[in-house]
C-alpha cells in the first residue's frame, strides 16, 4: 500500500533542481561500517542526503546483482517507449500462458486470453514485484537491448538488463537478471524523484508507482508509516537488496544496500541480508531525523507480508 506523505515532506517539482555537490559524512560512514561488520558476504551501501549532499559509501561502485531491483530500469524503459510512441500506456494486453514465469505471480495466475491494461501490469511489476509481468513489459519496452541503450545514454555505466538480452549471456551467468552498483541504483531513483527520468510527467507517475510497495517488511518497516518512501527490493539466494528514497521531514534522503555472496541463503525474516536492510534503514532514520524518533510497534513484524 502507498505510504501517506506528511505535509512537511517535499514534493517532486516539474523543473529539475540544481544538484548539490557531494560531501562525505564521515560520522555516518563510520556508523555504517560498524553496522555491516561481521556480515558473511559482500556488502555495498550508498547514502545521500539530497538537500545537503552529505554522502556515505561502502563498495558503492562495486557491481552487484539487482535481482528484482532491475524492475526500476524496466519501468523507465516502458515510459520511454511511450514517449517515443512505441507503446500506448492505456492499451489493453492479452495474456497468454506462454508468458508464464513460474512462481506466485498474480499475472501468471491469469487464464489464457485474459485481458489486462498495460498500466495494471506496470503497477503489479513494481507493487508486488510480479516477475511474469516484468518480463512481459521488458519485451514490450523493446527488450533489454533498448532499456540498456537508455541507461548508457544517461550515464549509467554498470546498470544493465542481462536476462533475455543478446550479448549479455556471460553477465547473466555472473549477476542474473540485472546488475548495478549501489550508487547507480540510488541515482536512478533520485532522477525519477527530481523529474529527470524520461520527462517530468513520466517521472511523477513512476514515482507514484514506487511508493505503492506491498513488500514492506525490511527497510520500509523501519520508517514511520505516515512518511512517504519510494522503494524497490530484490532477493535471490545469495543476495538481498533494496533502494529507498525517503521523503523525510528534514529533507529527502536516498540509500541503496546490496549484498552478494551471502552465506545465509534462507528466505526467513531473520536472514542476515534482511536483518542488514532493516538495521541500515533504522540507523539512517535516526541519523537524519533525530528530532522525529520512531520505532516499530511491538509485534509489527508479525503482521508483515
Describe this structure in a few short sentences.
With 305 residues, the chain is of the alpha+beta class.
Low-confidence stretches: 1-14
Number of helices: 9
Total count of strands:
11
Largest sheet: 6 strands, mixed
Physical arrangement of strands within the biggest beta sheet: 1-3-2-11-10-9
Alpha-carbon distance between the two ends: 11 Å
Defining key terms:
disordered N terminus; alpha+beta; 11 strands; 9 helices; three-stranded antiparallel sheet; 17% strand; six-stranded mixed sheet; 305 residues
Produce the secondary structure layout.
Layout: E1 23-24, H1 26-36, E2 42-49, E3 54-58, E4 64-65, H2 71-83, E5 92-94, E6 115-117, H3 118-127, H4 131-140, H5 143-153, E7 160-161, H6 169-175, E8 178-180, H7 182-193, H8 200-210, E9 229-236, E10 239-246, E11 253-260, H9 272-288
Parallel strand pairs: 1-3
Antiparallel strand pairs: 2-3, 2-11, 4-8, 5-6, 7-8, 9-10, 10-11
Q: Could you characterize what this model shows?
A:
By secondary structure, this protein is α+β, with helices and mostly antiparallel strands. The chain has helices spanning 26-36, 71-83, 118-127, 131-140, 143-153, 169-175, 182-193, 200-210, 272-288, and strands spanning 23-24, 42-49, 54-58, 64-65, 92-94, 115-117, 160-161, 178-180, 229-236, 239-246, 253-260. It has a 6-stranded mixed β-sheet with strand order 1-3-2-11-10-9, with helices on both faces.
Amino acid at each position: 500500500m502507498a505510504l501517506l506523505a506528511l505535509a512537511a515532506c517535499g514534493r517532486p517539482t516539474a523543473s529539475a533542481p540544481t544538484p548539490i555537490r557531494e560531501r562525505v559524512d564521515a560520522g555516518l560512514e563510520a556508523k555504517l561500517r560498524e553496522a555491516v561488520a561481521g556480515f558473511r558476504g559482500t556488502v555495498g551501501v550508498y547514502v545521500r542526503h539530497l538537500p545537503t549532499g552529505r554522502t556515505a559509501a561502502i563498495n558503492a561502485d562495486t557491481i552487484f546483482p539487482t535481482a528484482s531491483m532491475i524492475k526500476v530500469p524496466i519501468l523507465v524503459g516502458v515510459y520511454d517507449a511511450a514517449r517515443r510512441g512505441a507503446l500506448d500506456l492505456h492499451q489493453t494486453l492479452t495474456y497468454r500462458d506462454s508468458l508464464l514465469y513460474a512462481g506466485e505471480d498474480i499475472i501468471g495466475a491469469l487464464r489464457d486470453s485474459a485481458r489486462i491494461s498495460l498500466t495494471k501490469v506496470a503497477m503489479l511489476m513494481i507493487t508486488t514485484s510480479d516477475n511474469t509481468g516484468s518480463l512481459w513489459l521488458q519485451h514490450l519496452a523493446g527488450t533489454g537491448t533498448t532499456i540498456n541503450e537508455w541507461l548508457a545514454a544517461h550515464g549509467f555505466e554498470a546498470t544493465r538488463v542481462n536476462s533475455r538480452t543478446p550479448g549479455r549471456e556471460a553477465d547473466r551467468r555472473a549477476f542474473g537478471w540485472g546488475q548495478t552498483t549501489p550508487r547507480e541504483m540510488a541515482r536512478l531513483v533520485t532522477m525519477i524523484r527530481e523529474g529527470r527520468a524520461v520527462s517530468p510527467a513520466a517521472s511523477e507517475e513512476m514515482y507514484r508507482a514506487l511508493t505503492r510497495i506491498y513488500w514492506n517488511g525490511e527497510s520500509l518497516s523501519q520508517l514511520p508509516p505516515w512518511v512517504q518512501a519510494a522503494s524497490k527490493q530484490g532477493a535471490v539466494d545469495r543476495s538481498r537488496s533494496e533502494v529507498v528514497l525517503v521523503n523525510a521531514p528534514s529533507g529527502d534522503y536516498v540509500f541503496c544496500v546490496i549484498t552478494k555472496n551471502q552465506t545465509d541463503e534462507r528466505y526467513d525474516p531473520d536472514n542476515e541480508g534482511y536483518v542488514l536492510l532493516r538495521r541500515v534503514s533504522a540507523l539512517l532514520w535516526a541519523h537524519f531525523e533525530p528530532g522525529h524518533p520512531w520505532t516499530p510497534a511491538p509485534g509489527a513484524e508479525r503482521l508483515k507480508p
